[in-house]
Amino acid sequence: MKTALITGSARGIGAATAALFADMGYNVVINYNTSESDATALCEKIKTCGGNAIAIQADVSKINDARRLFDEAKKAFGQVDVLVNNAGIAQQKLFTDITQEDYDRMFDCNVKSVFNCCQCALPDMIHNKCGRIINISSMWGVAGASCEVHYSASKAAVIGMTKALAREVAPSGITVNCIAPGVIDTPMNKCFDEETVGALKDETPVGRLGTPDDIARAVVFLADEKNSFITGQTLGVDGGFI
């Protein structure tokens, strides 16, 4: 049985992805930093439905936490076959108001976490000559967003890392791809008022916000062994927004 590890998977896109992998028969490692109750509830729900899951606390922006996460995952289920780098944060601020602390936290959470987890996952994947890494970026990493310069820059960095790493590990049978979600109905976007949400729906050609399940299905597609000729790509799942 294969194992999928999803960072930041207590809620939103990560939780939907973990649940879908469990439905497909994977062992699932649910990673969380502060949302313990949500992670525990998701873990119990998966187990109640006959799946295998474990919830592990780790701040994956810190390398020692990331190493501990993978050590505990391997003790529970063996090797990690699929890594989904989903953990991240967002912030809306004028560029001139962004502090050094804002910038550093954004890049630690959104970029360093990807770097750390890839470094932890790859030794076993390279040894086994197989593996799937799917990184969650954003459409703003492709197009850029006003008042989200540091967020957009961090998500663009994830795309660059994806493309470069895909080339490096392809000879070892490992694919590395990226998903660039549009506006998704998750807790991260609860900061928007009703008028803003309506405007975002109107700007999306399909006429609705995305759901966590929309992204989860794209992740599972890229993780499928049958899609081994797809690597280094950024898949936009944004309802045609950009």
Quantity of strands, as a count: 7
As residue ranges, the low-confidence spans are none
SSE topology string: EHEHEHEHEHHEHHE
- Named CATH topology: Rossmann fold
Count of helix runs: 8
What helical percentage do the residues reach? 40-55%
Instruction: State the strand order across the main sheet.
Output: 3-2-1-4-5-6-7
What's the architecture in CATH terms? Answer: 3-Layer(aba) Sandwich
CATH superfamily descriptor: NAD(P)-binding Rossmann-like Domain
Question: What is the C-alpha radius of gyration, as a whole number of Å?
Answer: 17 Å
Structural class: alpha/beta
The first-level CATH class is given as Alpha Beta
Ends apart, CA distance between termini: 38 Å
Strand residue content: 15-25%
What about the largest sheet?
A: 7 strands, parallel
- How many distinct domains? 1
Mean pLDDT: 96
Global shape? globular
Provide a descriptive summary of the structure in words.
The protein has 242 residues and is α/β, with parallel strands linked by helices. It has a single domain (3-237), classed as Rossmann fold (3-Layer(aba) Sandwich), CATH 3.40.50. It has eight helices and seven strands, in the order E-H-E-H-E-H-E-H-E-H-H-E-H-H-E. It has helices at 12-23, 36-48, 63-77, 100-128, 139-143, 149-169, 194-203, 212-223, and strands at residues 3-6, 27-32, 52-57, 82-85, 131-136, 174-181, 234-237. The protein has a seven-stranded parallel sheet with strand order 3-2-1-4-5-6-7, with helices on both faces. The chain is globular and about 45 Å long. The protein starts with a strand and ends in a 5-residue tail after the last strand.
